[in-house]
Amino acid sequence: MPTTDHAPHRAPAASTAPALDLEARMAAVDAAMTVRLQLAGLALDVDTQAPAEPLDLEQTITGPVTLPDPPEPPYPTPAAATLQRAARRLRDGGWCRGALVDAEGARCLYGALHAEAPTARAESDALAVLLDAIRRHWPDAETVPDANDHRIGSWRVAVRLLDQAAALADTRGL
Q1: Which 3-state string (H, E, C) describes 43-100?
Q2: Please, is 97 exposed, middle or buried when counting C-beta atoms within 10 Å of its C-beta (0-12, 13-18, 19+)?
Q3: Which terminal Cβ of the chain has fewer Cβ within 10 Å, N or C?
């Protein structure tokens, strides 16, 4: 009569890497410690390095440093590019209320758009999108000049509206 083995079947054991002998383990630890000691020595050199002369901060720091904004890549569509150039014009030349252009050369929203529009169609599309952007903030705004003269409080808000309108025009393909 045949005998049966009731022990579960086991898969052959996966081969393992041979164990390192004591000398190999000591060499690995020595290499790791050498790297750590070199890094610690470098950190100590950096931390303890003293300047040749004491720094006089009053002579070094003379005021706030303002860096120019990096140039924005131009939008490829006419209305979006017009709005972007109008925003740059207001940023560089100033913003005003109550006139297309004031005595110092600052412009209102419409004045900046009018100056930057390459065509009447680009100007018309840009004005329509700008009014949409304005109405997102002030739903009862009737016209761009009305918003410019009665709702916008600073040149920063005017530039931000033009930037938002440029992104909106680009999204719409105008």
Answers
A1: HHHHHHCCCCCCCCHHHHCCCCCCCCCCCCCCCCCHHHHHHHHHHHHHHHHCECCCCC
A2: middle
A3: N
The answer for residues whose C-beta is within 8 angstroms of residue 80's C-beta and 6 or more apart is: 126, 166, 167, 169, 170, 174
Give the contacts of 162 (CB within 8 A, at least 6 positions apart).
Answer: 83, 84, 86, 87, 90, 109, 112, 130
Structure tokens at 151: 């709702």
Q: Residues 4-45: pLDDT tens digits? A: 445 445 555 555 667 888 888 888 889 889 989 898 888 888
Q: Among residues 164, 171, 170, which one has the least CA distance to residue 78?
A: 170
